[in-house]
């Protein structure tokens, strides 16, 4: 019997307009009315995730930054996994050496060493990836992204790593060149202290080795006296695979990557067709 639903956000709970549909919220509330607990499981930072969920009047605890942080429904921190500063320095150096635009996730938010360069890089990358979209539309989207994510600028990366009050939870690095991402990933995987995944073809995400959605979901479930067999996990991308391998009832979105569909037991509709709602209702039919 399912007691916890864990849902990814981007490409899963969120549609292409980066919104949680009423249909999805209704399905979550239906599950809650049957005594099932709901938790967000996202690569996003807590503040970022909450802004999106609260817009849809969805209040929930969250496993954030791929498992680097867990917070309860009141925002209280239950667990954090940070990357050791020396390792963070080395990681950043590798990402920069491979020509990747990189953001460092800390408690004040994502940090870049050069916002203007970052925006220009992201605009060029999106133009390569989506030649059918107008330049104006792409520029507008990138501006909105930097605004919404509240990206900070610190010119000197060393000041971030040398600051004892700043902790590194995650790196996200971007490139339109998948071979560059693959090379960087290969080098980073040499460290058994890091977990490397991605939330899209154009990025890689790096966290502490314990900061994975599956491991953090297990911790969260155990704290509530629930077994992994009694958890439902749904996602669409590479960074969801760890939880889809561990949960008892697993669903890939219709728009999920092929590797994700291979791991999940079921496939639902896409994120623009309220796939989360469809999957929840399907599960509830037999949840006795």
From TrEMBL:
Pfam families: Hydrolase_3
UniProt-recorded Gene Ontology molecular function terms: magnesium ion binding; phosphatase activity
A cellular component annotation (GO) from this entry: cytosol
Domain of life: Bacteria
Listed name of the protein: Cof-like hydrolase
Organism of origin: Listeria grayi DSM 20601
């Amino acid at each position: 019997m399912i007691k916890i639903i864990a849902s990814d956000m981007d490409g899963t709970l969120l549609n292409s307009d980066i919104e949680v549909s009423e249909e999805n919220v209704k399905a979550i509330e239906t599950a809650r009315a049957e005594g099932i607990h709901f938790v967000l499981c996202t690569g996003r930072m807590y503040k970022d995730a909450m802004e999106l969920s609260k817009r849809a009047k969805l209040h929930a605890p969250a496993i954030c930054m791929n498992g680097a942080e867990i917070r309860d429904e009141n925002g209280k921190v239950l667990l954090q996994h940070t990357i050791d500063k020396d390792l963070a320095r080395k990681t950043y150096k590798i990402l920069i050496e491979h020509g990747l635009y990189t953001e460092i996730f800390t408690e004040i938010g994502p940090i870049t060493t050069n916002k203007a360069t970052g925006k220009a890089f992201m605009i060029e990358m999106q133009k390569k990836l989506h030649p059918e979209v107008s330049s104006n539309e792409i520029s507008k989207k990138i501006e909105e992204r930097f605004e919404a994510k509240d990206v900070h600028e610190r010119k000197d990366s060393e000041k971030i790593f040398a600051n004892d009050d700043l902790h590194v939870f995650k790196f996200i690095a971007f490139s339109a060149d998948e071979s560059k991402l693959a090379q960087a990933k290969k080098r980073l995987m040499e460290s058994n202290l890091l977990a490397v995944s991605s939330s899209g073809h154009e990025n890689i995400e790096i966290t502490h080795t314990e900061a994975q959605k599956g491991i953090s979901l297990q911790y969260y479930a155990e704290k509530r006296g629930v077994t992994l067999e009694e958890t439902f996990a749904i996602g669409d991308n590479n960074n969801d695979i760890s939880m889809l391998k561990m949960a008892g009832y697993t669903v890939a979105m219709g728009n999920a990557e092929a590797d994700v569909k291979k791991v999940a037991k079921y496939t639902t509709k896409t994120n623009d067709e309220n796939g989360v709602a469809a999957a929840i209702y399907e599960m509830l039919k037999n949840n006795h």
